[in-house]
Every structure is written in C-alpha cells, then in structure tokens.
Amino acid sequence: MSALHPSGRTWGRLPGPLRTVVISVALAAAYYAAARFGLRYASIGRSISLVWPPTGIALAALTVLGLRYWPSVAVGALLANLATPVPPLTAGLIACGNTLEALVVALLLRRAGGDGLRLDAARTVRTLVLAAVPLGAMVSAGFGVTALHLAGGLEHSAPAALSVWWTGDVLGGLVVGPLLLAWVVPRPTGAHARGMVEIALLCLGTVAVAELLLGTLVRVPVLQQVDYLYLLFPFVIWAALRFGPRGATLATFTVAAVAVWHTTRGGGPFIGTSEPATLFAAACYLAAVAVTGLTLAVAVSHERASAAAATELREEELRAALDAARMGTWSWTAVDDRVLWDATMRELYHLAPNESVGTYGDFMARVHPEDRDYTASTIGQAMDRGTRLDFEFRIVLPDGRIRWLANRGRVRLGPEGRVVGLTGVTSDVTDRRAAEEQLRQAHRMESIGRLAGGVAHEANNQMSVIIAATEFIRRHPGLPLEVTTDVEHIRRAADRTAAVTAQLLAFSRRQVLKPVVLDLNEVLQRFVPVLRRSMGEDCRVTLQLDPGLAPVRADPGQLEQVVLNLALNARDAMPTGGELVVETAMVELGDGPPPEEAGMEMAPGRYAVLSVRDTGRGMDRATLANIFEPFFTTKDVGRGSGLGLSTVYGIVKQSGGYIWATSAPDRGSTFRIYLPQTAATPERSRVSASHPHPGVAPGQGELILVAEDEEQVRRVAARALTEAGYQVLEASNGREALEHAARAPARIRLVLTDVVMPEMSGRELAERLAILLPGTPVLFTSGYTDGEILRRGLLAPQSDFLGKPFSPEAVVRAVRERLAPIKV
After folding, report:
1. Which of 10, 132, 654, 803 is buried most, with the most CB atoms less than 10 Å from its CB?
2. CB under 8 Å to 815, separation ≥6 — which residues?
C-alpha cells in the first residue's frame, strides 16, 4: 500500500527524479496487468469486458499521486490495447479514452475532497458515485466504441457495446477504485491486527457462502435452490458498520469477484435469456452492492465522527471548566494500588516534573500529619459503604506551606458489583476557608461588640452616679482625711471603670469620634516624642514616612491612641530591647485584595498605609487569630486588660479603615492599617483636649426639666443643677415629663432627657414638647454614644448630646452652654 503512496517509506528513500520514474513505471505496469486480466473475461469481442479493473487503478493513482502521472496511464492502456487484435490507430484511440476517463474522475474527486481525500466524507462519495465515475466511464466508452466502429471491429450493435463498455468501467470505478483509495490513503489511526483478522474472516465468509450455494465441492440440493443474492449483503453491511470504507470496499470487491467468477462460468443467479441481459443483471447487482457499502460506510463514519466530535467537545468543555475552577482529576484502583493524577493535580501539590505519585501511600505521605487518620477513615468508609466522597483536608507542599484541599468523588464498581476504586476531583479551597474564617471573625467581633456596647451603657449609667456622688462628698468642708482618701479611691476606681467602658465602646465602634482631614505624617512626627518616652531607652523608634502621603479623615486623638497601643504591645514583646518602625506609604488597590492578605476583602481605591513593625517575640497562628478580641491577652494576670488591640480594631474600623497583623514566632510582628485617601485639604491643628476649660457661670434660677428613668442618675443630675442655681422638675418617663410641662409654674428654659426610656423615647418626647413648648432647647443624654443611637434611629442628626458617664460639672456646663453659649 505504501508503495503506491508518494509519502510511503518505500519511495521516501529514493531521490526525487528517480522516485517519479519508478512510480510511473510501476503504474503503467499495474494498469497493463489489470487490463490483460480484464480482457480475459471480455464478453463483446476481444475488447469489451463486464468489469474493467484498470479504471479503478487509474482513477486511484491520479487522485492520490497527482494528475501529472497521466502519461503512465496512457502508456499502460496503449500497451494493453496493442495486445488485442485491433489496428494500432484503434488501440491509440481506445487508450486516449481510458486516459481521459482517469483524468476526468481524478479531477472531479480532487476538487470534491481537496488534499484530504477521504471515502468517509459524504461529498467525496456523492461525487464518486453520481458524477465522477459515470461521467468518466461515458468518456471512455464513447472513445472506445467509436474507435471499434470505425475499424469495423464491433460484433454487436453500438448501443449494446456502449452500454456494456460503460457498465464495465463504472463497475471498475466503483469496485476497484474505492478499494485502492480506502486502503492507500493513510488513516488517522492505523488498523490493529485484530481488526485485520476480522476483515479477512469476513471476506473468507463471503467466498465460503457463495461456494456453499453455487459450488460443486459440496452439493446440498436444498442450498442449491437458494438465491444467494441477499445472503452476501450482510457481509458487506457488517464490514461497512464495523470497519467503515475499508471494510465496505474490501467486502464489495470480494462479492464482485465471486459474482463475476460464477457469471463468466455460466452459473449464478444472473444468467438471463441473452448475454446483454446477463451482463445487465450482474452489473445492477454489483453497482447496488458497491453503492450500498460506500453510502453505509459514509453514514456510519459521519455518525462516529459526530459522536467523537461531540465527545471531544464535552471533554474540552469539562476540561475548561475544571481548569477554570482549578480542579484536578484523579483515580485510584484499590486492586493494584494505582493512583493516576492529571496535570492540574500535580500543580495543586506543586510536584516537580520528575516526581510521581503512583500509590495510595504516595498520596498519604503528602497529607498533613494531623489529617491523615481522618483522611484514611473517610476514604475507608466510602469504600466499605459504597458512598460518595466529600471532605476537606490539609496537605504539606514541598516548600513547607500548608494548603486546604477539597476532595469529591465516587466509588468505582467492578464486574461483580464490588467496589474496586475511587475517582473524583480535587480543588484548592485555602482562600475560601480563609475568607470564611474572616467572615466568622467579623461576626464574632460584631456579636462581642453588641454585648460590649450594652455593658458599656449600663456601666455608664452607674458610673455617672458614682462620679457625681464622689464630687458631692468632696465639696463638704472639714471631711476627715480618711474619708477624703476613701473618696479619692472611689473616684479613681470610677475613672478607671469609665476608661474601660470607653475602650469597650471603641472596640464596638460606638464611641464618639471627631474626624478631621489631617496629614498622617504630621500627626506621627508630633507624636514621636511620646512614643520614644513610652518605649524606653533600650527600644529604638524609627520613622519611615512617605513624603507623597495623601490626607486622610480621622480623629487625631484616637489615631494617636492607636499608635500608642500598638507601641506598648511591641514594647512588651521586646523585653530585652529592639526596634519599633513606624512607616507610611501610599497604595492603590484594584478589585482584588492585596496579594499577601488572601481572604481580606477591601474596597478598591487609594489608601494611606500606616505600618507598625517590631522585632519582638512574635506570635503563633493561634494567638494571631484572637488578638483583636476583647479581654484576650497573653500577658500575666494584672499586667493587661486585654482591651488595647480591641480598642485599636474598633477605632480603625469606625474610621472606615482596615487592619490586620502578620507575625511568626521569633520573627516580630507587623500591624498594617489602611485608611482611605481623601481629596480634602488637611485642617489646622485644633486646641488640645487638655487645655483648661473656662469657668462656668452660675444659673439665674432658670427652670430645667430633667427626664430620666434611672432614679439615681436623675437625682444626681437634678442636684448638680440645683446647686448650680437652677430650678429643676424631675420626671421618671416621657409621660410624666409632658405632665410637668403642661402645668409648670414658670417657663421651662431647657429639657435634659435620656434617649432610651420606657413608654416613650427621648426623641418622641422632644417632638411632642416642640408642639407644647416651641423653641425650648432639648439636651439628650445616654449611656450609648450618639453614633449608636443615631444608627438605631433614636436621635435626630445634629441634636445636642451629652454622653454618660458625666460629672456634675459636665452637666452644669452643658446646660449653661445651651442657654447662653460661651465663646472659647
């Protein structure tokens, strides 16, 4: 086969010109030999045969090798015709017809199939059966019969000779030509030995059935009466279904050989009343067999190609989906302990090209030691119960990093229904688990924050009473020293409790902030002396400030508190000294988080980054996961409240920023704070909070209405105002306050009301008083901060507010400022 193909190994070793000569000679010889064989069965004269094999050889050669080999066909045809008793001129004309026939068929086939001529293509077969072979045979028959008629060599009528000649060439083109085209043109995948044996058995079966029915070796009278026409069709059909064009053409050739053999010997079902009738019957049968085999092979090949293309497309789509999801596929056969991984699986495990994972033990060696028992147990249960596999576990990469993987699979069953292995997919879920942990942490912090806010509210109410009571006691002259000392202890304890409450409010993001547009570098430079004093002589403080830092909006005092808390923690982590680096920088974030902080969701934009880095002991992963929770501390009892970092967290989050920490044992810690950039101009520094307040002028007997449901808080507020020169009406709720307002002996100049009260809130009370006493100012107070009550809709924006705990002086000052504002 390869000897006929220009790219075959036989011709590939020869030089170009020599190869062309050898192929030309071989083609001419093959045509001549086939023609001599066909002439042995000439049915009209010495030149017209029922089947003309050279037609098939010529069309196959010119189609595959190229039209330039037509001279070889012409030479072979001329020599074959010169061997018959016809004049040389007649032989030449017949040879011209044979050559033109091959050229016409080859040209049409090459145009239909292009360079990739395939008999399993519907267009090629349609062109071959309906156009190329019939048209080429007509050319050859026309030339041949005309030449014989002119030479006086026709023994039958011209129409009869023309029909037989045309039929013989058509059968040669449909039986021999497709056989050569199917077996000479290389297939995409080579036929295996088992398939070749099956094809050979089909051909032998065809011959055996024909001989059993028509032969003389074994005579069975019943079988001799059976018409074997339809009995040979199953062989052609099976060959077409099983092997496509190659099987169909070979089976067709075998049927044709058997039919022609018996017909020429005077046997078979084609014998008619006359020789033309016999030829016509045989020709129709063989044409039907050839066309049936070819068209069926094309249909089967098309369906197989469509199915293969659909399967390939589904596999590509599946692979694309797996690649997009970064999912790797795997399988494990328990019988021979064989593990197969695809390329994505190798990427997930960061395997080197020369590393292999071939067994279950190789896989388990890469599982995190703490997860091996769980992994083995889960796989064992799936194997024992035949259930699906769905679990997550950790692996250790070659560089020591730990990743989380999700395994999902199902069992594979053997012939007897027993579980023989597993197959499934694996994906990396490290980032997802990190995001889930961030979400759980946020929910946990939010819950703790709500609790802290509620606790702070109650504590602020009680601290207001305690602070006011100590102030009232201290005002009494002539107190014994012991009493004065005890009162100071009570006051300091109350102040410390109030400070803890303020830290709780800071953590829960419910404290009062006064944000301004500021230059972060300026704040740090002004604050660095405090840092150096706080860190001590053995801890060096270094500033690394970005001169191009953009302004941010934050409360400068709270920002200083953040830096101080971080610095004090760093100092505790460096008992033998070290370095504290405070650094600023500008970053611009896209739609994703910073690469080093997987799982931290941040809004895109430009940020000013404040980093505080130390060279201390560092923290392990477990400690790092809890550092922002209130009352969590690693310090000894009595050395810390556990509220420093929780306060930092609350201030940063309430300022619209983000904070996280990175640390490792013996490698120090780094806290990064991202604050959104603002386009506004930084404001000038305000008066320090430590600047003394001006004195408070006494009241002039103005009437004040105090509405407060906490009796002790109400009484200390009323006493403070009374001692400052005001008249006071007390109400325990909103309804009672409205009654006092309706029958007050004088005009009420101001209302001091708690925001959260039973029956009627402070806001509702203010709205009803605005109708009853229009123009009367209202001062709100609460153990919650104004930010919290605004968030809950309990207070209108821009309302006057006094937070608890408050001292008697603070209450008097707030009232005086609302009645007659004092200019600072």
Report:
1. 132
2. 699, 704, 721, 724, 726, 750, 752, 779
